[in-house]
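question for whoever is on the cluster today: can someone run the full assembly for these? two chains, 945 residues total. i dont have access anymore since they changed the login thing
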Amino acid sequence: MSAKKKSAAPSRSKAAPVTATKRLRTSSVGDGADAHQQLIASRVRAGLFAFFALLSLAITSGSAGVEGKFAFWADKVGGTDISFSIPVILLWAIVTAGFGAMAGLQLTRGATFKWRLAIGLVSPILVFALLARLLDGTTANLTVFFTSTLSYAIPVGIGALAGIVAERSGFLNIAIEGKLLFGAMIGSIASSLTGIAIAGPIAGAIFGAGVSLFLAWLGIRYKVDQIIAGTVINIGAVGVTTFAYLRVLQPHSEFNRPIGISPIQIPVLSEIPILGPILFSLSPYFYLSVGLVLFFTYMIYRTRWGLRLRAAGEQPNAAGTVGIDVVKLRYRAMIIAGLLAGFAGSYISLSGTGGFGVNTSAGKGFIALAAVIFGAWNPIYAFGASLIFGMTTAATTLLSGLGVSLPPQILLSMPYVVTIIVVAGLIGRVRAPASAGRPYDQG
Amino acid sequence: MRLELQKITKQFPGVLANDRISISVDKGQVLGLLGENGAGKTTLMNILSGLYRPDSGKILIDGKERIFRDPAQAIDAGIGMVHQHFMLVPVFDVTESVVLGNEPTKGPLGSFDRATARAQVVELSKKHGLHVDPDAKIESLPVGVRQRVEILKALYRKSDILVLDEPSAVLTPQETEELFDIIRGLAKGGTSVIFITHKLNEVIAVADKITVLRRGAVAGETTPKKATAAKLAEMMVGREVQLTVSRSKSHVAEPILQVKGLNVLNDAGGRAVNDVTFEVRSGEILAVAGVQGNGQTELVEALTGLRLVDSGTVALEKKPLHAGSPREIAMAGVAHIPEDRNRDGMIKGMTVAENYILNTYHLPQYSKNGLLNRKAIAAATEQAVKDFDVRTPSINTDIGSLSGGNQQKVIVAREFSRNVRLVIAAQPTRGLDVGSIEYIHRRIVEQRDAGAAVLIVSTELDEVLALGDRVAVMYEGRIVGILDAKQATRERVGLLMGGITK
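^ ran it for u. tokens below:
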């Protein structure tokens, strides 16, 4: 009798068993599978936050009487100053309270606590507090600080976008660093030779696509392990560009005198007091980057292309059996990734002065990889992660410019250390595209 | 549409997978394609779905020759595949899964038109009586429903020929019945269906016409009316087959394995085995039935020391078994035939002899001071190969080059080479030919008759019913019932497998 009943209402009641474990694994917090692990993870995080709170409490108590002095350029870059000062002890008290609250909330709310968001909120204040403490009374210009934060984020954010597009298609793209380097060198050469500013980014992007295509060819056609192939490209890029620099670019400096792409003033908007000089007087690269990030977010989540891209990265067989050409799709995604990475690389040599230098990308490609993970393969989140990197780098630059007495090696390593802590130390479980890194076998 | 395959031949290095196979199916007909593993069914279907190209032979649809260079062309021609391993993206929802590859779009960027897609899926599932929630994530769906999504995928592509590859492998008997209803309904509506299986009863139940494959060639054609299970088995194997395991009455004695209140976690930390209590006595076979993924794997891993026990006790002959030390457990007299022989049973790339001593190499007769005694190993392996009828060119052959049946025989020989008090056999005959299945069943029954306790875990109901002196059914990590062989009917066990205890 019960059998009859069952077939009468088949869709729900006969909910069969096979995925009992799977279901638990994916269901939300609290029941079964994840709960145990999440509990441990959130306790660890709570402990970590408590430790941070104690640490900042110690700094707070040692900061009495120090004034943090900050300034903005009100009207334009290099214009009139607006300055203000905050007692450092107050900043640190806020940070201490913030970490304390995070520890408490994490402990009581467990896995429902949005700790990523909380870190996002507390870390800017922390950076200021740190800055103010280290400056020890010297005035820091915040307009410079913010613009450089945004600028430093550009190559990392676009590099991360390159990683996301590739990995969403199922190709583990660890060669971002190599493509940045190539993009930087080729961009500089192209710009120098043609005398056309825009030739730099275009050439860099095209060359990056070429490198990416080569990598894809190794990984897809010959099924070379994608991590090894990527590493080869990264190491090869350092070797080739350094050689080219020492043998060609240095002796013939006309090859390495690019037309820089300088910041633009956006009409009207750049005249907004305080905000104008920060947000609307940046390099065109920045605005293009924001556009690309938004564009690709839309493409990945809302279009047919994105649906197929994600299918190929999750379950290439599922895509292949409905007639999607997974191999072609991955090649295309890798070309796009190469265009993006090469473009990002050109920024490094074209934004500042002096063109290309030895190992000029300085690990930004790897930071981009970290941003991919922290951003959970979502372009917008990943761009947010690259802002954290940008902010730390900006702080470092600011401090070394003002002659703060810290060994330069420590200062220079700070952005990387912070990134590692953020990505590795505090990361929860994010879900990578299930098939990223696995070659597709069409049979 | 009428589909005809004419003299399809496909050669792989060393194997003639398809040897001039000709089959046909008419509009509205259900063709049962019966064959053992390795008979060439899957190769044939991969050719039909455009994944492989035949070396020679023709594919005719309504009399016209078609050549498929890739899956897209096969789909265009109206062929829809439901693969044995579902081709679904776990993180997609039902709507996305069904339309993937033929997505409705709008706008210049090719934006995915979700609303239209969803409406189409809803309409399609209503029309064919395939109930699914269009917004449910695939990974949250039970297997039976996922299969419906697969069928919807094919129907969405307007398939006139539906090919189902071993569709019942992951279903409970009741779900299988429902699937048959769906198939009959589709056939009535004019869809041609090819139903691939190795289960005799299923083709008899659902097919209009049966074609049997053996070793890559057509072994015969018949209809369900003319066929009997015994006849089909004979066609499939090429000789007379005993479908039931002959075994004497069991002589049950003292309990060997006692499991009390066992809880085991899965890899994700969820509770896979939930408060399980049972015992297996000397001279009896306890068969654990259940649809794949209901905690059987974790149960076996916990009993054999491959997975930590969360709480509860496991005792072998009254002595507690300490989880975490597979060697200790093996030496205590537990023989383990693992579920996935490729992963846990043997090491491909190593020889038959090396695999034979895989868990006894440390014993003094095989090694001294860290040096292997090759002579003793060779002698023992030679004997085992003879005793267990392992067909191998030599004991120094790579085990990976043997057939599945012979690999399994090496594993069974190894496990039975020690003093055995308890046999734990998980899916001992998965993917084997009928001859090997018979042989391994016989060996397991021999162990029982010699006084060992035997625990068999199987998702094949036939195997459970054929071997079990008692049948335990696992559902969502619990044992929902233990029946004596007499009470254990297909119907009753089947309901328990679906979690229905009344």
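summary bc i know u wont read the tokens: Chain B touches chain A through 74 residues (CB under 8 Å). The radius of gyration of chain B is 25 Å.
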